[in-house]
Design goal:
heterotrimer, A mainly alpha (about 270), B mainly alpha (about 325), C alpha/beta (about 525), A: about 270 residues, mainly alpha, MetI-like fold, about 70% helix, C: 6-stranded mixed sheet, 6-stranded mixed sheet, 20 helices, about 25% strand, MetI-like_sf (chain B)
């Protein structure tokens, strides 16, 4: 039996899709030669053809080019948001699970309060506080995810602490720090990673939502949510302006979702 | 007796959480740089004198010390007074009263639809005859949760309403007009519920009692509807309680797309205009919905799951 | 040899999981009114055969060969709908684990009723009457009250009675009992088996009993089949199997089963006058208002084994955790090597915990799944001994040799080794701290008999060579008898008996101990009486 289950076809496909988007983030100019922000006015609202695979928008900008450059707007920001969420959440949740019952109770109360505020509303509250813009939006999404990260990580660590092998390690003379470093972290890593990947797909969607509502990057930034919002006005005549950015979001979010699904699926170790 | 006590404790907890949610948002919003009132009224076009602006300030925010303001606001809120909208100059209560019914309709219909989806997906994924079909149903939750809500909403209008002319979205009664937005909002709500239900069904199916029931000669359908499904819904109910708050948040996007004048529209305007009092009121409504739904679920679960009814007496602590 | 028609007729059955054969060439017949035992250790394929008969194999299983017929009807060719009319009606199935084999959400009466609803056209009232009758038949005194109770309100033995009521509701021709009592306490176990015997005699059903327990089989079965690695090692009547076993595997099983031989005579190591290694005085532990352990006292002399026997809920786990100082008692004291463990400094506590190692029941959950065997055994070495890497390496090899594990296992993970190997690793980890005292919690209970026998041998070898003191907690009297010098028997937290082990086994003083000893399986032989069936 291997330590890591071999990657299934689904995971390979998901990783492949994400790699393409990764390429778009790192080398957008290798994938397209057009400019994402300035268009050719005479070429406005062209339907998809060989020259413009995904058509052009109202200013004659190539939609595919904008989607490629848009990856750079959403995906790293979503990563920042998710990392903010998981780091804060792991700190609060871990602290709660490892502390005395009084501290745990207090922190759990705070987590409950934050969970009671719907994530989007919490993100909007943060946005109103910090102001609009891509970085602020990422921070807002990260903070709005913190409570659910904290809750899940707290419960995970607590259930790990109750495992017989943890007690066995303590009775073998392992101290508190050793218990965390040698036993809790390695065992919590995989489930938390799976959760983080899942949350990443949700952060992408949340960020695009903020962009769609106009609280993210301002025009003419090629942000996917913003592109969908702009495309709405031309929906009757230029369906491609809304369809393709949405498909890009859907593809990357679905690939991430499947990847996390494959990661968190229980392994069949012993009968 | 103990169940009354349990209900009481849960109720107090709910109140405490609401109070916490109020406190958190109050201080978050008070920390706002640049007073919203000042921004609004220092507009030279209004031609207000500094004295008038100061008078406005006192009128809108009550008093200047944050702690006093906090006490003042919480007392007012307990009386159902949410203050004034700085943007529109009308009581927040009036705005909410107009907007809430629309959003509640949307939330209730969307919620019911999401439950229908969840059950359909679970049934399809468990009972369909061909394996590939079952697998396709199992992939639905992941797919739906990857769809951006505003994007699917746009296409629901475009296809169902404009192209196929099945249901109009403008100029119709309050319930007909809600069907399409509710459809849009139900998909992302159903996705996590269905995912959890599928997981739970998979776990229940592995329990020995399911095998024991099969040995009685019960058919696949009978085992599923009578035993597996009822034993799998409890965690889903908890999740459904959680998602009720998300429905109100989902309304922000949905109402924008479908042109509904509900809480979502109100929120959007409040964020754009930095209208703190309105946003605070909306957050409190969202939190109340969340807490109430959770309280309801919490009191409902023992009715569904008999082993949780008198748990304390049967828990054996020293069992080896 | 038998003129009756077989009820169940399996011929040349072969089943594989994902292409790997699980059972091969199994042929057997069962007859009305007789019990056939299918004996095997884990992985022998006994459950696969049971599931194949009732046609509820998991999807990864394939029937590669053979047929199964029940009273002349082929089960292997039946349609799903046809099978549903046979299951429950002609085949009754008694599952393994009563605690999880009932729907937790429904009253038990409704669950018995279900089988009637599925197979008969009885009215609701008729069904209710039938269920009440069944409840009474399987030994419930208040059927009306039981009808509306939920599974969590019944004890394990009661749940098993309900499951038996479901299985026998329609007097099926064949009853399959899949380890029907292995999850139950000894005293309950014999009651349930008595009930099964009675029902079989009354209805003339044929019983196929799947079990790992030779002693239970010897008490209850007329015929036996011993399985090894998915093949039949021996097929015989119970009597001749025990008197003159034909296969070497059967002989090995018999030799390794603790039930069939008492402890090899060793000189009593009960030396009084020395300072006891562990001294428990008047110990009482309570959780809230519930007393888990009350007024327990015993001494353990250095170099001896103290057995603690108790059924589930007896408080033995609580006692053990208190002994380790993991929970504090309400009153009473525990002295280890003369020192009170509840008034020690933290340095003393650390020293005592090094000297007194706890070894757990579950082979897998007590080893961290993310660490290699090397890291697991090294943990106490790093923590307790300042010596360097080279010293640790030498110690590691010594320890592995002590517990008879090959060196190449060091880089494996716990999920990659067997249960018996896991227990050896757990022992090596405990020994790494160089303790004087080992506290063993149901240490061999999860293991197959042959593995169990090797581990017990290892324990006595270690005790002799390292002069260790053992506290051995178990529910299994036969196992404890093999290893214990002194004994405490506890029930509901109270000490029923305490003293020299052989003395207690020979002349039990308390009535509870007497019943306990009488109900140990393997003492009667059912194979003797049913001669009349053979002759007919």
């Amino acid at each position: 039996m291997k330590r890591f289950a071999p990657l299934g076809p689904e995971s390979v496909l998901s990783i492949g899709v994400l790699a393409v988007f990764g390429l778009a983030i790192l080398f957008p100019s290798a994938l397209t030669h057009s400019d994402p922000t300035t268009g050719v006015a005479k070429d406005h609202l062209l339907a998809p053809d060989w020259a413009h695979w995904f058509g052009t928008d109202q200013l004659g900008r190539d939609v595919l080019t904008r989607i490629i450059y848009g990856a750079r707007e959403t995906l790293p920001a979503a990563l920042l948001a998710t990392l903010t969420g998981v780091v804060l959440g792991a700190f609060i949740g871990g602290l709660a699970a490892l502390s005395a019952p009084v501290v745990d109770g207090a922190l759990s109360g705070v987590i409950d309060v934050l969970l009671s505020i719907p994530e989007l509303l919490l993100a909007l509250t943060v946005v109103i506080l910090t102001g609009f813009g891509p970085l602020h939006a990422a921070l807002a999404v990260g903070i709005s995810q913190t409570a659910s990260f904290a809750r899940i990580i707290r419960n995970l660590v607590r259930s790990l602490r109750a495992m017989p092998y943890i007690e066995a390690a303590r009775l073998s003379g392992t101290g508190f720090g050793g218990m965390i470093w040698w036993h809790i972290l390695p065992n919590a890593f995989r489930p938390v990673l799976g959760l983080t990947v899942l949350r990443y797909s949700m952060a992408i969607l949340s960020l695009a939502t903020l962009g769609f509502l106009g609280y993210g990057a301002p025009p003419p930034t090629p942000e996917w949510g913003l592109m969908i919002a702009e495309g709405r006005d031309y929906l009757a005549t230029a369906w491609w302006m809304t369809t393709f950015p949405g498909l890009a979001l859907l593809t990357v979010a679905f690939a991430t979702n499947r990847l996390s699904h494959a990661m968190t699926r229980p392994r069949e170790d012993q009968p | 007796m103990s169940s009354f006590r349990h209900a009481g404790i849960q109720f107090i907890r709910a109140i405490l959480i609401l109070w916490g949610a109020f406190t958190v948002t109050f201080f978050l919003l008070q920390m706002m740089p640049g007073d919203a009132v000042m921004v609004r009224f220092m507009d030279p076009e209004l031609g207000l004198s500094p004295d008038q602006i100061e008078a406005m300030r006192v009128l809108y925010s009550g008093s200047s010390s944050p702690v006093l303001q906090y006490c003042h606001t919480i007392l007012r809120m307990l009386h159902g007074d949410f203050g004034y909208s700085v943007q529109l100059g009308v009581p927040v209560r009036t705005l909410i009263a107009a907007a809430l019914p629309v959003t509640l309709r949307l939330a209730v219909v969307g919620f019911i639809l999401s439950l229908v989806w969840t059950l359909l997906i679970a049934t399809g994924a468990s009972l369909l005859p061909a394996r590939p079909l079952r697998q396709a149903f199992q992939a639905i939750p992941g797919f739906w949760s990857a769809i951006p809500l505003y994007w699917s909403g746009i296409f629901i209008i475009q296809i169902l309403s404009f192209k196929l002319r099945l249901l109009p979205v403008v100029g119709v009664g309050p319930w007909e007009g809600i069907i399409l937005p509710a459809l849009a909002v139900s998909l992302p709500i159903a996705a996590p519920q269905a995912k959890l239900l599928l997981q739970q069904i998979e776990e229940t199916e592995r329990l020995p009692f399911v095998m024991a029931i099969r040995t009685k000669g019960a058919s696949q359908e009978s085992v599923f509807f009578r035993h597996i499904l009822p034993n799998s819904v409890t965690p889903c109910l908890t999740m459904a309680g959680l998602s009720f708050g998300e429905l109100i948040a989902g309304a922000i996007v949905t109402e924008t797309i479908f042109g509904l004048n509900g809480l979502g529209r109100l929120t959007r305007d409040a964020v754009s205009g930095q209208d703190v009092a309105v946003l605070q009121a909306v957050v409190m409504i969202g939190a109340t919905g969340f807490v109430a739904a959770n309280l309801a679920v919490d009191l409902l679960i023992p009715l569904i799951n008999p082993s949780l009814r008198s748990s304390a007496a049967w828990k054996e602590k020293s069992g080896s | 040899m038998n003129t009756q028609h077989p009820v169940l007729d399996i011929s040349h059955l072969g089943i594989s999981y994902d292409g790997k054969p699980a059972v091969e060439n199994i042929s057997l017949q069962t007859f009305p009114g007789r019990t056939m035992a299918l004996i095997g250790e884990s992985g022998s394929g006994k459950s696969t055969i049971a599931k194949a008969i009732i046609q509820l194999l998991p999807p990864s299983a394939r029937l590669t060969h053979g047929t199964i017929t029940l009273n002349g009807i082929s089960l292997t060719d039946a349609t799903p709908r046809g099978l549903n009319t046979i299951r429950g009606r002609q085949i009754g199935f008694i599952p393994q684990d009563p605690s999880s084999s009932l729907d937790p959400r429904l009253p038990v009466g409704r669950q018995i009723e279900e089988v009637l609803r599925l197979h008969t056209s009885q009215s609701r009232a008729e069904r209710r009457g039938h269920v009440l009758h069944l409840l009474e038949h399987v030994g419930f005194s208040e059927p009306e009250r039981r009808f509306s109770q939920f599974p969590h309100e019944l004890s394990g033995g009661m749940k098993q009675r309900v499951l038996i009521a479901i299985a026998v509701a329609l007097a099926p021709a064949l009853l399959i009992a899949d380890e029907p009592t292995s999850a139950l306490d000894v005293t309950i176990q014999s009651q349930i088996l008595d009930l099964l015997d009675r029902l079989r005699e009354e209805s003339g059903s044929s019983v196929l009993m799947i079990t790992h327990d030779l002693a239970v089989a010897r008490d209850r079965a007329h015929d036996m089949i011993v399985l090894q690695h998915g093949r039949i090692a021996e097929q015989n009547t119970t009597r001749s199997l025990f008197e003159s076993p034909r296969s070497s595997y059967t002989r090995k099983l018999l030799a390794d089963s603790p039930a069939f031989h008492s402890r090899p005579a060793t000189p009593a190591r009960f030396v009084s006058g020395m300072r006891p290694a562990i001294q428990v005085k008047d110990l009482t532990v309570a959780y809230g208002s519930q007393t888990a352990v009350s007024h327990l006292s015993f001494d353990v002399q250095p170099g001896t084994t103290h057995g603690i026997i108790g059924e589930s809920g007896s408080g033995k786990t609580t006692l053990l955790r208190c002994l380790m100082g993991l929970i504090s008692p309400q009153s009473g004291s525990v002295h280890v090597n003369g020192k009170d463990i509840f008034s020690e400094t933290s340095a003393e506590r650390r020293q005592r915990l090094r000297n007194m190692q706890l070894v757990y029941q579950n082979p897998w959950s007590s080893l961290d799944p993310r660490l290699t065997i090397r890291r697991i055994i090294e943990e106490p070495l790093r923590n307790y001994f300042p010596e360097g890497q080279a010293w640790r390496q030498t110690r590691l090899h010594e320890l592995l040799e002590r517990v008879h594990l090959p060196l190449h296992l060091l880089e494996r993970y716990p999920s990659e080794i067997s249960g018996g190997q896991c227990q050896r690793v757990a022992l090596a980890r405990a020994l790494a701290a160089q303790p004087d005292i080992l506290v063993l919690d149901e240490f061999v209970s999860a293991l197959d008999v042959t593995v169990q026998a090797r581990i017990l041998e290892l324990l006595s070898e270690l005790q002799k060579e390292l002069d260790l003191t053992f506290v051995f907690v178990s529910h299994d009297l036969a196992v404890v008898r093999q290893i214990a010098d002194t004994l405490s028997i506890i029930r509901y937290g109270k000490q029923e008996e305490y003293g020299d082990a052989e003395q207690i086994f020979r002349k039990p003083a308390s009535p509870y101990t007497q019943t306990l000893l009488q109900t140990i399986p393997g003492q009667k032989q059912n194979g003797n009486q049913p001669q009349k069936f053979l002759g007919s």
